[in-house]
Give the backbone structure.
Amino acid sequence: MMLKIAIGTTNPAKVQAVQKAFQEQYGDVQFECLKTESYVSEQPRSDQETIEGALNRAKNVLKATNSDVGIGLEGGVSESLYGMFVCNWGALVDRNGTEIIGGGARISLPKEISLELKAGKELGPLMDEYTQRTGIRKKEGAIGVFTNGLLTREEMFHHVVDLLIGQWQYKQNNHRNSRP
């Protein structure tokens, strides 16, 4: 039986990350992509809000499709004593009610970007303005810009999806091994 994965976004960087990660683990997989609601602000401003957005997307896309697994990915920012950091979280929800959360890379944002975010701007449009280009969030993302291309948004989310898949596999194997 072919594994059916529902992805709670149509953003190319996120979709490609999910597709590559699942294909590496399972080979031939069926995907369905739907733009789903996160029920958090357009610019999540904490780990908690970013996690909630990812989990809501995963749950919503699973409900909206006939899939085995729903995946939600959310990017946000998080304030610390050391400045504002980009953060990213993912959630995997399966038909059995299993919910798994994983987070990824963090880098500090330049002060001029942090100040604009604190003034209420969203990172995606702000990055377009900062780089004088369009669609940064669908391409390399802020992480790609500020790591000089050494890590892209897709790679960052691929890592998060690997964390989700690994935890899901572990739970499935442990559940099977714990039966009498």
User: Anything to note?
Assistant: The chain has a mean pLDDT of 95. The radius of gyration is 17 Å. The CA atoms of residues 129 and 136 lie 10 Å apart. The longest strand covers residues 69-80.
